[in-house]
Amino acid sequence: MKETPSGTPVGVDDPYDHAGVCDHLTDEGKCRFAFEHPRQDPEFARERREDDLRCPAADPDGDWDWSSCPHYRCRNRDRECIRCGLEERRMAHSDERPLLEEHHLSYAGEGETLGHEITVYLCRWCHAKVHKSWARIDDDVNPDPEAIAEKEGRRSREQEELSFESAAERYDADEDRGNEEQ
């Protein structure tokens, strides 16, 4: 299993098995990195411009795969744990720790200076299990009971905030109470 530089497991054997489409790929199959950041890798940008910015890894008939591209990056945007399915529930104006954490699947290997950024979301509980044991991100598991309790607690507080009385309703209620006392 792949490991972090500190030696903890990341939960996968091959990060590319869990990677999706490159973040730099446009809907037209063009490389946005070569267009927006030509100075970061002039040779790469020149080659892409000569090929009309076409992404060779996105071409099913091409000779590249995602791991061949020096600027491949795939960050999961789904706001749910890919291991247990727990959905994020953020509280506005709160400094509470998020339920989900970004989890890196790839790191620079021996002799490498740069690894591809491949990240997914794991809930805090699955994240700890993956790093502290041999748990895998593709295990078929249910959310931890503690995770469900935390999510439901946030949901309850969210609903409390949504159920409010308007000032007009409160004023009418106060006025009605005053008339009843007389």
SSE map:
Blueprint: H1 32-36, H2 42-50, E1 73-75, E2 100-104, E3 117-123, H3 124-132, H4 145-162, H5 167-181
Parallel strand pairs: 1-3
Antiparallel strand pairs: 2-3
Q: Can you describe what's shown?
A:
- The chain is α+β, with helices and mostly antiparallel strands and 182 residues long.
- The protein folds into two domains: 20-71, no CATH class; 74-182, no CATH class.
- It has helices spanning 32-36, 42-50, 124-132, 145-162, 167-181; strands at residues 73-75, 100-104, 117-123.
- It has a three-stranded mixed β-sheet.
What distinguishing features does this structure have?
alpha+beta; 182 residues; 3 strands; 5 helices; 31% helix; three-stranded mixed β-sheet
Please give the share of residues in helix.
25-40%
The largest sheet is: 3 strands, mixed
Rounded to the nearest angstrom, the distance between the terminal CA atoms is: 77 Å
Shape: extended
Strand order of the largest sheet: 1-3-2
- Strand % is 5-15%
The overall average pLDDT, rounded, is 87
Brief digest:
The chain has helices spanning 32-36, 42-50, 124-132, 145-162, 167-181, and strands at 73-75, 100-104, 117-123.
